[in-house]
Amino acid sequence: HRTMASNVWRSMVRKCRLSRVVFSLQLQTVTLIPGDGIGPEISVAVMKIFESAKVPIQWEERNVTAIQGPGGRWMIPPDCKESMDRTLIGLKGPLKTPIAAGHPSMNLLLRKTFDLYANVRPCVSIEGYKTPYTDVDLVTIRENTEGEYSGIEHIIVDGVVQSIKLITEDASRRIAEYAFEYARNNQRNSVTAVHKANIMRMSDGLFLRKCREVAENFKDVKFTEMYLDTVCLNMVQDPTQFDVLVMPNLYGDILSDLCAGLIGGLGVTPSGNIGANGVAIFESVHGTAPDIAGLDMANPTALLLSAVMMLRHMGMHDYGKKIETACFDTIRDKKVLTGDLGGKSKCSEFTEEICRRVRDMD
Amino acid sequence: HHRSSHSHVTHHTQHALFTPLEHNHSLICFRCSLVTLTEKCPPPAKYGGRHTVTLIPGDGIGPELLNHVKELFRFSCVPVDFEVVNVSSATEDDINNAITAIRRNGVALKGNIETLHTLPASHKSRNNLLRTSLDLYANVMHCKSLPGVQTRHNNIDIMIIRENTEGEYSSLEHESVSGVVECLKIITRTNSLRIAEYAFKLAREKGRKRVTAVHKANIMKLGDGLFLQCCREVAAGYPDIAFDAMIVDNTTMQLVSKPQQFDVMVMPNLYGNVVSNVCAGLVGGPGLVPGANYGRDYAVFETATRNTGKSIADRNIANPTAMLLASCMMLDHLKLHDYATMIRNAVLTTMNETQVSQVLSPHCTLVTMRNTLTCSVLSPDLPSTLT
């Protein structure tokens, strides 16, 4: 599992046009967005662990709150944008998305600003954290900019609402190309396109057509297509039959969370977002958990594993390996675990345990 | 033929096959008041004491599954005649004939009709067309763990009520600019109130404690926001039933880790598709769960996950349980409760006691069911041709 994970991000290094990012022994700057709720606590945990591993990274903290720019358009604060454009690497904690607040979701805004078109979530069973599903090893690649999350809704007449799902040729082709390249670079055998073209003939039909076209250029990777409901049905019965899944936004959202549930939940699932111009933002995908915010009960594993992916993306494989091993060993040991993992320890204790293991490795 | 079979049926009921007539009668009346959620009485397609039901074989495994149903009904002397309407994917006429037949008979049992992508986009899904033309607004699915089936999770008992006519399945799409396709998802207040009302009424009648609305209102604020609001309004009128809401991605995650927490779930069309398939997978697969589509005037019964099953068609390996249980639901709808119970018990006994695996030939399954049915048939006057 660990070699798989490191291969995942080693090839992302090869893929990404990283000419602007300098890989040297000097300090690398990473934009850190702590987020809301438990965000700040887990960010502190990650920073502590990185410190004890002596990772040559300096953090540039930025906050993301929706502000209205000129013309009434909602946007992220300019200092955050400037930082990310410069560093090209970001680590993000959970952001609040209130229902009916008048402004679009913050996560959505970030994606639009940096054109983060691919959300990659490798779901690999964690040894030591038992779930009813074992041997899960799949990757969900979700189109992240359009689809059902276009945010375009209208009230046609009182009591009738219309939401628009947008599918474009370019976005579909781009995500399909990314999925196949990812599969090729990571020695994955097959790519499955998930769709509902029997009902949404034109929109999912277009997505499917683009996937088929791109598949022609990647004959070494097997291409299959499957209905969303069939995927859901088979996923909960036998997840080992799936390899790489590529799909539009909404299905991706649902399926990636479903797969996260198979390996143990959002508290242990890493995630990465790839942008069109070299920007990559790694994030923990769980919510802000306002009920346990500030109580030192949060589990930093998800953010930590995402940070490990970030390290691999930046070429710092040794540091990544060290921290990941420390984390998995701690979980496997079961002595110091946070509440959601079945233990009774605090977040700070869990963090300290990982820090200790990291220091002992040196 | 009709007269002789009719007298045979009455002769049948006088024996101790079923409970004594008086108890039977009061039981049926009690069930009447419970089961009728549609405002109208059962369909009038009854001639000589026999009901007529439209049968749409569909594609893939549909025809063979429905043959099993016909065989079992024939063996059990169920007073139902099937009007078979074949629907091919090619022409519009077929589906219109089917719809007319269902309007006439009021009840249908169907297999899934395949939707070919190679045909142009103007060719809509036949199944969807059927559902929207007949306004079958509620898709009801009951997922219950069966003791004889090995699954990762136990003690699942979830009722899923899915809005069946609008939402993402509105089939309204257009290509505004070349390379950009827009697909409209429609949510209306009327339909949302209707489905929420249905869900709460069903929950109350089945003695359920909690209804969960599944949505994505944090992203689709107006659309799913409206749906959620309607659910909340209806919930206010049912103080005896707890109501909560859950976002769809969290719901799928909870379903694969702790499915026992769910009781009754209500949701718009697409999420219903996802959640019902996840639940069907959790209790043992597509071959086990029946589904029903109810409208104000019509009812159509099918397997819950609506699979065409092309890869396993005509190989005698399709599991008939889902379709058989769906036919029992149909019998309940026709108020033939005793037949429904008899067949359902036979099916469930076979599933639970004989531990039938999915690859066991349905022919063997049916023979086992017949044997179970024979045991429950006490009457010595059944003609030998039927045993």
Automatic annotation (TrEMBL), chain A:
The record's comment on protein family reads: Belongs to the isocitrate and isopropylmalate dehydrogenases family.
Which reactions does this protein catalyse? D-threo-isocitrate + NAD(+) = 2-oxoglutarate + CO2 + NADH
Q: Which UniProt keywords apply?
A: Magnesium, Metal-binding, Mitochondrion, NAD, Oxidoreductase, Transit peptide, Tricarboxylic acid cycle
Its GO CC terms are: mitochondrion
Ranges for domain Isopropylmalate dehydrogenase-like? 29-354
Where is this protein found?
Mitochondrion
Q: How does it assemble?
A: Heterooligomer of subunits alpha (IDH3A), beta (IDH3B), and gamma (IDH3G) in the apparent ratio of 2:1:1. The heterodimer containing one IDH3A and one IDH3B subunit and the heterodimer containing one IDH3A and one IDH3G subunit assemble into a heterotetramer (which contains two subunits of IDH3A, one of IDH3B and one of IDH3G) and further into the heterooctamer.
Q: What is this protein called?
A: Isocitrate dehydrogenase [NAD] subunit, mitochondrial
Protein function: Catalytic subunit of the enzyme which catalyzes the decarboxylation of isocitrate (ICT) into alpha-ketoglutarate. The heterodimer composed of the alpha (IDH3A) and beta (IDH3B) subunits and the heterodimer composed of the alpha (IDH3A) and gamma (IDH3G) subunits, have considerable basal activity but the full activity of the heterotetramer (containing two subunits of IDH3A, one of IDH3B and one of IDH3G) requires the assembly and cooperative function of both heterodimers.
Does the keyword Magnesium belong to this entry?
yes
One short Pfam name that applies is Iso_dh
Q: Which PANTHER family match?
A: DECARBOXYLATING DEHYDROGENASES-ISOCITRATE, ISOPROPYLMALATE, TARTRATE, ISOCITRATE DEHYDROGENASE [NAD] SUBUNIT ALPHA, MITOCHONDRIAL
> What InterPro entries does its record include?
IsoCit/isopropylmalate_DH_CS (IPR019818), Isocitrate_DH_NAD (IPR004434), IsoPropMal-DH-like_dom (IPR024084)
Has keyword Transit peptide? Answer: yes
In terms of SMART domains, this protein maps to: Iso_dh (SM01329)
UniProtKB/TrEMBL annotation, chain B:
* Keyword Phosphoprotein among record annotations: no
Quick check: keyword Repeat in the entry?
A: no
Q: Which GO terms describe its molecular function?
A: magnesium ion binding; NAD binding; oxidoreductase activity, acting on the CH-OH group of donors, NAD or NADP as acceptor
Q: Where is this gene product found? A: Mitochondrion
List the InterPro entries hit by this protein, alphabetically.
IsoCit/isopropylmalate_DH_CS, Isocitrate_DH_NAD, IsoPropMal-DH-like_dom
Q: Which Pfam families match?
A: Iso_dh
Q: What is this protein called?
A: Isocitrate dehydrogenase [NAD] subunit, mitochondrial
What is said about its interaction partners and assembly?
Heterooligomer of subunits alpha (IDH3A), beta (IDH3B), and gamma (IDH3G) in the apparent ratio of 2:1:1. The heterodimer containing one IDH3A and one IDH3B subunit and the heterodimer containing one IDH3A and one IDH3G subunit assemble into a heterotetramer (which contains two subunits of IDH3A, one of IDH3B and one of IDH3G) and further into the heterooctamer.
A GO cellular-component term linked to this record: mitochondrion
Instruction: Family membership, please give it.
Output: Belongs to the isocitrate and isopropylmalate dehydrogenases family.
- Swiss-Prot/TrEMBL GO biological process terms: isocitrate metabolic process; tricarboxylic acid cycle
Specify the Isopropylmalate dehydrogenase-like domain's residue ranges: 52-360
> Keyword set for this entry?
Mitochondrion, Transit peptide, Tricarboxylic acid cycle
Q: List the PROSITE patterns.
A: IDH_IMDH (PS00470)
